[in-house]
Amino acid sequence: MKQPKPHSDAAAGNAASAEDSVRKTSFFTVFVNDSIFGLEVKDAQAIYKVGTITPIPLIHKEIAGFINLRGKAVVAVSLRRRLGAACGNGAAENIAIGVERGSEHLALLVDRVGDVLALPSSARTDLPPHCDEAQSRYTRDLYVHDSKLIPILDLDRLFDFESGATH
């Protein structure tokens, strides 16, 4: 009986590398002004139009207030304010993305939602060292798609108001 030939570490590494480059993660694009960002599909529980926002006094400036999500008062965080982005012409944060962080339900306010993209891990690239610190602090990864760089949002950092991550 023939014994199977053992795989070399190099061959196993090449197979794992090929598998990684084929593995895809699904993101949908969100926009603040004309800037594009990615958010993992698995992180979003709901996408809905924003109704009335009830301001919360004495709170972080990045928190727009409470919004009603299916009868629940949910804290709405402005992606524009969090990134320190200016208000664009006619831009309005009228779309909310419902997320859950720990046991808390939150909403991320964006101008609009774009396409869903399934990007291979081979499209991932490192953040360049000269990126704007205020914006890159909320970025987990950077992907290249159709000659565009798409920063993927890090929701843990984005919704962390206790570690001094505000600006």
Explain what the structure shows.
- The chain is α+β, with helices and mostly antiparallel strands and 167 residues long.
- It has one domain (26-158): CheA-289, Domain 4 (OB fold (Dihydrolipoamide Acetyltransferase, E2P)), CATH 2.40.50.180.
- Helix content is 16%, strand content 43%.
- The chain contains 4 helices and 11 strands; from the N terminus they run αβββββαββββαββα.
- A 5-stranded mixed beta sheet has the order 3-6-7-5-4. A 3-stranded antiparallel beta sheet has the order 2-1-8. Strands 9-10-11 form a 3-stranded antiparallel beta sheet.
- A hairpin with a 2-residue loop joins strand 10 (139-145) and strand 11.
- The chain starts with 8 loop residues before the first helix and ends in a 9-residue tail after the last helix.
- The model is unreliable at 1-8 (pLDDT under 50).
Features:
single chain; 167 residues; five-stranded mixed β-sheet; 11 strands; disordered N terminus
What's the structural blueprint in terms of helices and strands?
Layout: H1 9-22, E1 24-32, E2 35-40, E3 46-49, E4 63-69, E5 72-78, H2 79-83, E6 95-101, E7 104-110, E8 112-120, E9 124-125, H3 133-136, E10 139-145, E11 148-153, H4 155-158
Parallel strand pairs: 5-7
Antiparallel strand pairs: 1-2, 1-8, 3-6, 4-5, 6-7, 9-10, 10-11
CATH T-level fold name: OB fold (Dihydrolipoamide Acetyltransferase, E2P)
- What is the strand content? 35-45%
* Secondary structure category: alpha+beta
What's the β-strand tally?
A: 11
The helix count comes to 4
CATH architecture: Beta Barrel
Using only C-alpha atoms, the radius of gyration works out to 20 Å
Compute the number of structural domains. Answer: 1
Low-confidence stretches: 1-8
State the distance separating the first and last CA atoms.
Answer: 68 Å
Instruction: Characterize the biggest β-sheet.
Output: 5 strands, mixed
Biggest sheet strand order reads 3-6-7-5-4
